[in-house]
Amino acid sequence: MDDLTESEPTTTVDVRDAFGIDVDMIVPAFRDRDAHVPEIDPAYRFNRDVTLALLAGFSRNRRVLTQGMHGTGKSTHVEQVAARLNWPCVRLNLDGHISRLELLGRDTITVEDGMQVTRFQDGILPWAVRRPVALVLDEYDAGRPDVMFVIQRLLERAGKLTLSDQSAVLTPHPYFRMFATANTVGLGDLNGMYYGVQRLNHAQLDRWDIVASLGYLPRREEAAIVAARVPEVADRRGPELIDAMVAVAGLTRDSFRAGDLSTLMSPRTVISWAENVEVFGDVATAFRLSFVNRCDESERPLVAELFQRCFDLELNGADKTSVA
């Protein structure tokens, strides 16, 4: 990766102006953007509490872990805060195949002046801690326990990174920041939705300064996001169609909480549904292909009932809400 152009923030951002949150808070920011700064999504909706938690992470170097169900926008939330601060941001997905060598680095053989030479190549952690970068550890609860201990000391207030192979201890850059996202709160997969997640070591979990919880957006805000993402459908049918789709999603979440459904619709699924309406020309077909077919067969009659309740239409009947 290329070196960053600015080594420290050179300006500030007023939280009230940048995020629409009525609070007196000024956050350091970078004046210029570089290749590591995420693009600004003007349609993104910020959760007040989570945004303030993340801003505390950026401004006061607090380690922030954001927990929430799939599709709530956990990783995107960090990126969109970083985007408005022009803060370089790098995401690392902690799947079960990430190893210590990938995090810390390894010896590599290169050819110099016609001779093979062994050089140490930094992993993502040494690269990040030397720079003013917001490192986001995605799927934090899916990382292998033996690998997770690599970052243990780095989570401490004055934490440093030890490279035992190099007999070196790295002091993080003053504007290095660390965030993480997780579907669970460290207790493992309690409802069968997140196969592959691990129980988190509570000694490490305790090192996160702030744990924020991000839920699904209120119905009106979610509908606004779907309309912004798929304006073709929203413009052709008006807000009523999008409102009904979001209402179906809300009913699936209620049914999931009640134990009647084993899966639910995330905002990401609703957006896919709206996009598929544009592709297939009718709401029912798009719904079946976007969500129903991933449900257990025994639960599909209930899903069809939820659809009928919001659209006044049998799921397998003629589609009166065609947008073709």
Automatic annotation (TrEMBL):
Xref: InterPro entries: ATPase_dyneun-rel_AAA, CbbQ/NirQ/NorQ/GpvN, CobS_N_dom, P-loop_NTPase
Residue stretches making up the Cobaltochelatase subunit CobS N-terminal domain: 5-37
Domain ATPase dynein-related AAA: 64-193
Recorded superkingdom: Bacteria
Gene Ontology MF: a single term: ATP hydrolysis activity
Name of the protein this chain belongs to: MoxR family ATPase
